[in-house]
Fold this protein.
Amino acid sequence: MLTCTDLSFSYDSQKSFSFPSFSCEKGEPLLILGKSGTGKTTLLHLLALLLKPTKGSIKINGHELASLTPKEATQMRANHVGIIYQKPHFVSSLNVLDNLLLANYLADQKQSIEQAQKLSDNLGISNLLDKKTNLLSGGEQQRVSIARALMNNPDVILADEPTSNLDDENCDKVILLLENQSKNIGAALVIVTHDQRLKDNFKNIITL
Ligand SMILES: Nc1ncnc2c1ncn2[C@@H]1O[C@H](COP(=O)(O)OP(=O)(O)OP(=O)(O)O)[C@@H](O)[C@H]1O
């Protein structure tokens, strides 16, 4: 589903990264662990087609990302990749429901209130749908971010430090939600983090 081979990236001549090769099948979550500055967010942005590798290959469902035109890359990201960013980047003038529907709109998909309600039920945020996002707690924002990433039934879910601001109890809950939701929709799940608490939850772990 997602494979990366011999991936390298440079911001400039001073800052370059070589990443280990890996693959992630649907229903097989992968944890990428690394200390601050080891390139976790950079790797996630490569997988999310937000950066282009200087060398190597990334394939989603067999499609080589480097060979996509800019338009195809945008479509691939919107329709096949769900991203949970370190900071949520909501549109603060919209309520939670409209932030969720925006994900459909930006992917040129039919806006699905049913999907938003189903995900909100699963994630325990259905009582928040009419709230403005700046009124939510950190844990609530995290769950809305997960719902938004799943609105278009992506094939790959990428999560950047999803637990870094959470206490132990909410950390476990969020990981369980991510695992269950990715299983439900048959998506590959890649989590990048420095949070050592997650080590015991995953079978497949790569350390940067
Ligand atoms: N746009 C950029 N231009 C130049 N260097 C950058 C750029 N973005 C990130 N870097 C550098 O690349 C390195 C890796 O950054 P990245 O954010 O990928 O690391 P990280 O492992 O996610 O770190 P953290 O856990 O602190 O978020 C850092 O030293 C950072 O300063």
Notes: The chain has a mean pLDDT of 92. The helical segments are 40-47, 70-80, 96-106, 113-123, 138-150, 168-185.
